[in-house]
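Deviations from the work plan: none for this task. Representative record:
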Amino acid sequence: MGQIMGSYDAKKIDLYMDDKPSFDPQAGFSYERQKREMVANETDLVSARIPPEFRDYCSHYLLDYQVCRYKHMPFLYKCAHEKHEYLNCEQRDYILRMKEFERERRLRVREQRLVGVA
Amino acid sequence: MAATILKKVVLSNPKLIGKNAGIFCLAARNHWNYQYKPGPYPKTPEERAAAAKKYGLTVEEYQPFPESMCFGDYPKLPDIGADSKDPHYPWDMPDLRRNFNEPLHVRSEIYGGDRYDISMKPRFSVMHQLRWFLGTVFGFMAIYFYLDDYKFGRPVTAKQYPGQGVHYLFSPK
């Protein structure tokens, strides 16, 4: 999962980078999946002037980081931990997207196989 | 002292005074535009010979421009840029690559060494340059269109933003 040839082969099933998942999110799970929750408040993000492309599920970490920067300017090394927290969150978010891609790919391959049998 | 030196200089090179006087005469007397203008177009062989003599050319190498070009009796000289002339020849004016009293080309202001050399021989012919230019451009275009079918990105789905539908983690509730 995640290797570059994985996304190259996904061309065969018409799956590309930044596509949206097309299957039911619960399909194939024996348990109910946990919903992602937005921690930060939209108005807080707007008042902190965080651009829309950064208002994702990690933006509460980004907000903490920016607050820290504002407090400690110009001693930004004091915000290293906040920055690390934020980047870790973004990494987890990226891994989640990779997992969604792989789930989508496997479900499409399975669907094709079932159609071929039927 | 100064007079002795002057005497020595003059005696060692008797033509010096005449030559320099000629230059000063030329510079001081012929300084109106009409004096530099070419004469009327030569029609008879005698007029041609006179014009050739005026420009310091032999009758065989003298050739006026066609009358319709309105250059009068000005000679048509071979198109040679200063850069194409031999740099090792002992020119009277090495920076212009020109000898004293040598007639100027009618377009000499553009054929100077700092401008354009009309008689330059390119290292590669223009067709050769064009072939390489178009070959490079269309070669890269061909590679681009060939590889267009093999594009792929990173194996990730679209970034999830709150407010754009419900998103789930992979962990149980």
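The mean pLDDT of chain A is 92.
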